[in-house]
Design a protein that fits this description.
The structure is a single chain. By secondary structure, the chain is of the alpha+beta class. The chain is built from five helices and six strands, in the order ααβββαββααβ. It has a single domain, classed as Pnp Oxidase, Chain A (Roll). A six-stranded antiparallel beta barrel has the order 1-2-3-6-5-4. A hairpin with a 2-residue loop joins β2 and β3.
Amino acid sequence: MGENTEFNSDDLIADRNALDQINRQVVDEFRANGGKVGGPFAGSDLILLTTVGAKSGQPRVSPLVYFEVDGRILIAGSFGGSPKAPAWVHNLRAQPKVRAEIGTESFDAEARELPRGERDSLYPRVVEKAPQFGEYQAKTSRAIPLFEITRV
């Protein structure tokens, strides 16, 4: 992913194989560079979240932008504003125990989906940090879920 790569989440969502390939490249770059990546994610706070596949039972690694809000680590299941949630959301709902990587640190964690009221009060804070998440919410009728990642 070069620095001039234009990131279009709609294109990636339409092509699951392309999304998997991009994710693998981001994961490899993240791990090779102590949590730093270039391209469309340059300068973003990224977390690698290893979940257990809800159907497969196999480990799945997802590179995700995270937001630190009031000392909490939050991730949003936006999928670029798609009408459906990303696969990792389904995995977390089925099994909230995860492995998380931030920078060079790796730790066991638990994901907690925020109840609607808490989500609604915190989602604007996410949008303050990354306005595109407001655009993603405007594109879909579903409430984009927020999850808190807590070390265990």
